């Protein structure tokens, strides 16, 4: 089901009123990955992601320049840690043009976003994560417990440090 103009307007207003907030608490369990408008590059379930490797879930939007700029770091995580870290992209619309699947596919191709992409045009997963911001990053340990979350790209060093730390913990437990 795609948004109609009215739904987009109301949900975008909701986003702009609460921009910058997310409330998922540390140690929260990874939610089910239900409600995608569409999946690109394969479909994943919660079951696919927990048990073996930590998981980085990053929320981005086609209209977010900061999101696009941070993709090189996400690609680095994906490629360097492919045997140690799951990476999932969630496309969350900020404006009505972000609902265009063709444009999302073009941006994904242009920026080599080859990991699975959950298209969240109806904001279902964003709401479950209580996320109102892009870019946003959620790191879950191998048991599916939230160990780190952050908004924006201002502290990619903190994200890198945390991912390296959680990978060390995961290695110690194997």
Task: Spell out the blueprint of helices and strands.
Blueprint: H1 5-18, E1 38-40, H2 46-49, E2 55-60, H3 65-80, E3 86-91, H4 101-110, E4 117-119, H5 124-129, E5 136-140, E6 146-151, H6 156-172
Parallel strand pairs: 2-3, 3-4
Antiparallel strand pairs: 1-4, 2-5, 5-6
Brief summary:
The chain has 6 helices and 6 strands. The protein has 174 residues and is of the alpha/beta class.
How would you describe this structure to a colleague?
- Helix content is 39%, strand content 17%.
- The protein has 6 helices and 6 strands; from the N terminus they run H-E-H-E-H-E-H-E-H-E-E-H.
- It has a 6-stranded mixed sheet with strand order 1-4-3-2-5-6, covered by helices on one side.
């Amino acid at each position: 089901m795609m948004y109609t103009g009215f739904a987009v307007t109301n949900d975008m207003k909701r986003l702009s009123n609460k921009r910058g907030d997310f409330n998922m608490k540390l140690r929260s369990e990874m939610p089910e990955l239900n409600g995608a408008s569409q999946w690109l590059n394969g479909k994943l379930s919660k079951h696919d992601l927990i048990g073996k490797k930590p998981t980085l879930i990053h929320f981005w939007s086609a209209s977010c320049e900061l999101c696009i700029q941070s993709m090189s770091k996400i690609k680095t995580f994906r490629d360097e840690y492919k045997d140690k870290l799951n990476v999932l992209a969630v496309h969350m619309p900020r404006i009505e043009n972000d609902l265009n699947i063709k444009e999302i596919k073009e941006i994904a191709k242009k920026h080599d976003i080859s990991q699975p992409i959950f298209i969240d045009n109806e904001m279902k997963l964003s709401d479950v994560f209580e996320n109102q911001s892009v870019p946003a990053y959620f790191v879950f340990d191998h048991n599916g417990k939230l160990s780190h979350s952050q908004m924006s790209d201002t502290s990619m060093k903190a994200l890198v440090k945390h991912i390296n730390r959680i990978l060390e913990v995961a290695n110690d437990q194997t």
